[in-house]
Amino acid sequence: MEDQPLSPSSASLDRRAELSEFLRTRRARLRPLDVGLPDFGRHRRVPGLRREELAQLAGVSVAYYTRLEQGNGRNVSAEVLDSIARALRLNDAEHAHLTHLAKGKQHKKKASARPQQVRPPLGQLLAAMEGVPAYIGGRRSDILAWNGMAAAVFGDWSELPVTERNWARLVFLRPEYRDLFVEWEQKAIDIVCLLRMDAGCYPDDTRLSALVGELSVKSEEFRRLWATHDVKEKSHGVKRLHHPLVGELSLSYESFRMPDDPDQSLVTYHAEPGSASAQALRLLASWGTDATRVAPAP
């Protein structure tokens, strides 16, 4: 069963439904042969593992696992969740997501209604990082602060309303960002995975629910990716861009969580020394605010 789009007015995400769909989709992606079980081929009526098989692997009763997959995670122990996570071959991010969904109020974080604030010294650090595109990201894929090089590479977000300074909105709703990212699909997947992580941590975040609802209505691609229930932590990697002024860029990125606020991350980009991308960054730095902007003023 595919997820139904949320309406923009949804008050919060349904934790029980999230838990149910997450477990179901994780079970469906495993084949019996992946976990050392016999595969009866055409005689199987469901994709992936059966509930009975998963329960056997996790060392719990079929009835117990069935209740959990139906969204009833009340009183489930950490040990049982660990066993189910191992049986489902979950990675660390997926394991953490399962715990947030299953434990509910015991582990649920409360999202503050106040706007996220970036400490002034962090803003000063961004400004001092000359030649390095960098920004501070927050919950819901919000872009909280950035330096001049980030504006030269990704667009001057100061020209956008505060509510539009959001990676999910930019990538799914603005065509220029589809042109900017060479592997647009992977960028879209990364964003949805992060939003799913946020949803597990903050199921009562009405702003996140409204964002998911709006994107579900406006973007078929978002609906498709949201229905996968995939989660992933942002860490490091390479992004290939097609900049409208300097052409192709290949930039390595690193993401650092803030020790005093894990909901905020410093994300930096750099090019391999001596590469054409490094030369292109120097060119953008020399042009400063005169560089062509990816995201023009609306």
Q: Secondary-structure map with pairings?
A:
Layout: H1 15-28, H2 51-58, H3 62-69, H4 78-87, H5 92-103, H6 120-128, E1 134-137, E2 143-146, H7 148-154, H8 167-173, H9 175-180, H10 184-201, H11 206-218, H12 220-226, E3 236-243, E4 247-258, E5 261-270, H13 276-287
Helix pairs in contact: 2-3, 2-4, 4-5, 5-10, 8-10, 11-12
Walkthrough of the structure:
Strands 2-1-5-4-3 form a 5-stranded antiparallel β-sheet. Helices cover 44% and strands 13% of the residues. It has 298 residues and is an alpha+beta fold. α2 packs across α3, α5 runs parallel beside α10 and α11 packs across α12.
Keywords:
13 helices, 5-stranded antiparallel sheet, 44% helix, 5 strands, 298 residues, 13% strand, elongated, single chain, alpha+beta, disordered C terminus, disordered N terminus
What would a concise description of this structure say?
The protein is α+β, with helices and mostly antiparallel strands and 298 residues long.
Shape: elongated
Rg computed from alpha carbons, rounded to a whole number of angstroms = 21 Å
Oligomer: single chain
Low-confidence stretches: 1-10, 292-298
Q: Given the structure, what is the number of helices?
A: 13
What is the chain-wise order of helices and strands? HHHHHHEEHHHHHHEEEH
Q: Describe the sheet with the most strands.
A: 5 strands, antiparallel
